Amino acid sequence: MSGEYVLIADDEPDVLDVAVRALAQEGYRVKGVSSGLAAVEEAQRQRYDLLVADIKMPGMNGLQAFRLIKGFSPDTLGLIITGFGTLEMAIEAVRLGVTAFILKPFSPNELRAAVARALENRRLAQENARLRALLPLYELSCALVATTGLDALVSRIAQLAARETGACSCSLLLVDEARQELYLAAAWSSEGERVARTRLKIGQGVAGWVARTREPVYVKGELVNSGSWARFTEPERPASAICLPLVVKDQCIGVIGLVKAGGAPPFTAVDHELLSVLANGAAVAIENARLFTRLQQAYERLAELDHRKSEFINLAAHELRSPLAAVITYASLLQEDSEGSTRDHLGVILEAAERLHRLLDDMLNLQELDARTILLQPRPVDLAEALNEALASLAHRVRAKEQVVTVDLPPDLPRVFADPRKLQIILLNLISNAIKFTPDRGCITVEAIAEDGEVMISVRDTGVGIPEADQERIFERFYQVADSLRREQGGLGLGLSIAKGLVELQGGRIWVQSKVGRGSTFTFTLPRWRLPSP
Fold it and tell me: Closest Cα to residue 495, out of 445, 435, 419?
């Protein structure tokens, strides 16, 4: 792979010229110098990936030059040219991190091969860093799944970042958008010490600059005690520090800063690679945790509002029942003693009062379903008797529209195992719905058959029918096929939702089959009654 920067230091002009030409032909960006001191000065002006240096040069030799360069450019690799070697020299070279040796005399091909191997080893180390980063990212993912709060998550991120890089302290600051500040969200220290809560303006100090520019910063040597790093500890002789932005969808949500104490090896390119991957994963995890927190707060708020709504419905329904009962009672008494138009007018009042009574019942039934406070008292119920009771309650509405209701039940139909009161609500809602949407002089048929361990009851009408696109939603509360401002029929659209809830509460199923213009069939099942085994 070409393009890497290579610095060659050799006091022999011929060797230097051959080496420069050989590597330049391979596409490397090569610079040749004739002394160790010149190599150090050049490395201070330009960062180099590899130093190729002669072990024996006047003044400063190759190892001494490499030691100095390694101090301010820890990622630079070393390849030593030597015509002789000693055990002491080899030990010193390895201690400094020299990658390889090449013996004089050497051919251009041997030099190219040695340089290629050294740089390939570094690429493998960087790839290894990426693989190493997968482990803390996996732990981060596990922490995100297991953590319900943002505080615990950011603390875990700070601990992971410090552990994987050998940092003595790590701080994680998040952006406060409203105040345009960074605040200390988490910090970790090998010393276990604590610091005061820290806030920085965006653009202030190192961390603020990183947040504003979204560019990482690497610092080596003494750090100004300005609070920019927000660390637990302040090493007397820090080796190096690094600060990276946490970016999600092109927006900086925070920064993470790490420090290594004096005496520890400074951050390397491998550390940079690992931290970059970790920072990307951490930013996504933090943003997801924030979204989860907001969603949880919104859900709690909705739950509170829903509770208040249920309380209001319950209170309003009960408060309206008493005056409504008085209206129905006295209107019924007056109707019995009245004649002519007065009797007809009282009939209209009673019809309106009964409709309001049904609406109140629907509201209370729905509230009980939501609160799951319905008490079931199932027992064997004769379906024919239950149907007769429901039809008797709706007879006046059937007569008003001159409809024909047919009940088709087999004589050996078994009893159902259900709560009689809840079964009445189901039948009243389904038959009432059929009456409402069936035109005058239309037909309504109620059928039932026994299948396996259940009884299947159907209410079929010759009404307007339901479009196929609306059939999936017809059992949703408040849902009505026609626009609520243009529909001809009254009601809140709760009857079918309540029927579905009560059927399923008793272990049954409910569904609809319909064609527009040909009518609808609502079918539900209930468990059949069986005598207990002796």
Answer: 435
